[in-house]
Amino acid sequence: MRACQGLLLWLCAGIGAIAWTAAGADGASGLLDTTWTLTRLGDTPLPPGPEQRRPHLSLQRKDGRVSAWLGCNAASGSYTLDGAQLAFGPMRSTRMACRDGMSVEHGLAEALGNTARWSMSGGELELYDAAGVPLARFAPGPPP
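Given the sequence above, the corresponding structure tokens read:
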């Protein structure tokens, strides 16, 4: 019995160490201070636009700010991060009208406003609403 308890404790400690290493000491390693390029909005893959760069965002660790290119307009605001919980505050943006990409821009702005949590899978960032529905997926790196 005692050996079984020791083995169980060892297994739990090992699994915890693996999870801690994957997420980083503060749970946000890799999430912050990285440029994230939008690859999927909801369940729809985002094809590259012929004349514009892909929407992307970056969450800065230093000042708790997010900056984004939504597809036509630049946006910035604040974010709150607590473990897997992530919420974006009100965003300010430029107000240009573009011929292409406005539906993606509006969809991304809505997704950011509904974000309640995040996760990383295969090196990609996933944003979810409070019910766990995927809102957007991003790959690391600058947009093409």
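The first strand starts at residue 35 and ends at 41. Try to locate this feature in the token string yourself.
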